[in-house]
From TrEMBL:
Pfam families (UniProt xref): Pribosyltran (PF00156)
Signal sequence region: none
Biological classification of the source: Archaea, Thermoproteota, Thermoprotei, Desulfurococcales, Desulfurococcaceae
Domain Phosphoribosyltransferase residues, every copy: 18-126
InterPro entries according to UniProt: PRTase-like, PRTase_dom
Alphabetized GO MF terms: glycosyltransferase activity
Protein name, as recorded: Phosphoribosyltransferase
Length: 218
């Protein structure tokens, strides 16, 4: 039984989506002076968009919302807030990888308008998960009608670790082969990095221990 709907995203997907997104924005007539990337997920898409759209200035805001793969804290908050930035003469594009609840986008937009005094702000994401989002981005290219966890290339290790942790919380101790079977049952995807490598990383981080050939959480 699948417990979490997961889509593995490739680098090729990211390049294709950001290229499509760039043309959607350009064809709308909006030409931002500054791109603000929501860290961490928006950093790579923002850099690619800047290249396609000939935007020189990129800033970032660290927004904390998702605390673990598939789960989030109730409110999104700005971390390491930078003040004293003046964008009063700038048209701004705020970029994130995905609009899920939309709270990260809303918090970032409010901050950029209130503290950085941006003249105009628009929002862009690759994915827009329509059923759960509380805000609709101005620009997106992939409309998602069923909630799905998108596993982006810059998040493979973190996501794989968290997905394995979910399994071990319920079923430890398990051998590598048993974890492989459970992983397929729970998520129905081909792991983007081998589960053996994931468990090795988890051992280095002190998250799991191996006893008599089986893994359990430390």
């Amino acid at each position: 039984m699948v417990k979490l709907r997961v889509k593995v995203v490739t680098w090729e997907d990211v390049v294709r989506w950001t290229k499509e997104l760039a043309f959607v924005i350009l064809e709308s007539g909006y030409k931002p002076d500054v791109i603000v990337a929501i860290a961490r997920g928006g950093l790579t898409p923002a850099r690619l968009l800047a290249d396609y759209m000939d935007v020189i200035d990129i800033l970032s805001l660290k927004v904390e919302h998702w605390v673990e793969t598939g789960s989030h804290q109730e409110e999104a908050v700005i971390k390491y807030a930078a003040q004293g930035i003046d964008l009063s003469n700038a048209k701004v594009l705020i970029v994130d990888d995905i609009c899920d609840t939309g709270k990260s986008l809303m918090v970032a937009k409010d901050y950029v308008e209130k503290y950085w005094k941006a003249r105009q702000v628009k929002l862009a994401t690759m994915q827009y998960i329509e059923p759960v989002a509380q805000i609709r981005p101005d620009y997106f290219v992939d409309l998602v009608r069923d909630w799905t966890w998108y596993m982006y290339p810059w998040n493979y290790v973190e996501d794989m670790v968290n997905l394995v942790k979910k399994i071990l919380k319920e079923h430890a101790p398990l051998s590598l082969q048993e974890i492989i079977i459970k992983f397929q049952e729970w998520y129905n995807i081909t792991p983007p990095i081998p589960l053996s490598e994931t468990l090795r990383v988890m051992e280095y981080r002190g998250l799991v221990k191996k006893v008599d050939g089986k893994y359990e959480l430390s």
